[in-house]
Specification:
Helices cover 52% and strands 4% of the residues. It is mainly α and 93 residues long. The protein has one domain: Orthogonal Bundle (Non-ribosomal Peptide Synthetase Peptidyl Carrier Protein, Chain A). Strands 1-2 form a two-stranded antiparallel ribbon. Helix 1 (3-20) packs across helix 2 (45-59) and helix 1 packs across helix 4.
Amino acid sequence: MAPAEQVIIERLGLLLRDMVVDWEPDFDAPIGRDTRIVEELGFESVDLMQLIVEVEKAFDGRGLPFDKVFMADSGYATEITVGELCDFLSEHL
């Protein structure tokens, strides 16, 4: 993994942990590339919208085409991994 990608993964991990700290998720493992945001961390559609806002703030990424990573078949993606979000940010930042 390239150093820039490692930094993005680490920042995403911290951001996601902060978001789910009060949700009491059944996920105790470290957050990494293979972590599934919906299934493992318990995100719902409204949480994904908040995640977009938090990612924009954390990475100064306003105006990024988040639909490419969060949308599928005219609705929210049913699953996305931290790695997919990292790859998206690496490409668009």
